[in-house]
User: What shape does this take?
Amino acid sequence: MAVPIAILDCDLLLYGRGHRTLDRFKLEDVTDEYLVSMYGFPRQFIYYLVDLLGASLSRPTQRSRAISPETQILAALGFYTSGSFQTRMGDAVGISQASMSRCVANVTEALVERASQFIHFPEEEASVQSLKDDFYGLAGMPGVLGVIDCTHVAIKAPNAEDLSYVNRKGLHSLNCLMVCDARGALLSAETHWPGSLQDCTVLQQAALNSQFEAGLYKDGWLLGDSSFFLRTWLMTPLHIPETTAEYRYNMAHSATHSVIEQTFRTIRSRFRCLDGSKGTLQYSPEKSSHIILACCVLHNISLEHGLDVWSSPATGQMEQPEEEYEQMESLDSEACRIRRELLLTHFS
Assistant: This one.
């Protein structure tokens, strides 16, 4: 006698006819410790994401038995924090590996749609001053609106002919330009730049450059390392410090700029899909860029919720390639003047 075999349609499970949800996993049935170990976040944080993203993840269709927003979010968090679509992760929430992939895509797009809500520079004068005060409290560097740097995230080769994503180490990657505040919260994140581009080139082409050049953020500057050009709104370290004031400036600059390096380590540690330990992101550059940005949004939401993002051990195998950069600071005489004035006023 033939035994009938049920063939599950992943789209059927995900979207559903009559929009009934598939709830095989209940948050209230497990401990916070289990949720953190499996999905990287505690219950209340996950509930917040359900409220935030629920409308975007509940799109009625003509099919039956949709996967609930709660389950979709758990599936995506499981991928972001583990870096794999392992069967045990899908089993834990009661869905197939293919459905997990679709859940990750849905949650990623929902987070990307809200990126500007959570990643932005402050606008109110009091908030801007607080930003500067927080940076000044780190090492005595005045006027800092943010620290800037680039980091590479490994991706699969788009195709054999496209070398634009091959970085200086010969690996395919995206070069991500980010700015953070003194707490490590991201103020800007551009995650789509090809890995072959040097940091200075990325900044020259970035929206962030246009914003600062247009004077959108005044009365302050970013801090960047020697891979960037000195600008009126971007202070870099002195290449060869000679005086006591120059050494003090460089020391304060380095101590303050280290916040972005620590932030990169923290993001990689929490979101293991970015750290290379489970291999490269197996997506197109565009989709990989969106996954990185989604993790950046979650990083900032984590900080808003008071989660201790500094506590995880540093991991990661994909470090930023070393760049040979010829400094050309003297080309911007006004930027040189501003830095000299900063040295005389605060470090002499």
About this structure: Confidence is low (pLDDT under 50) at residues 1-22, 311-323.
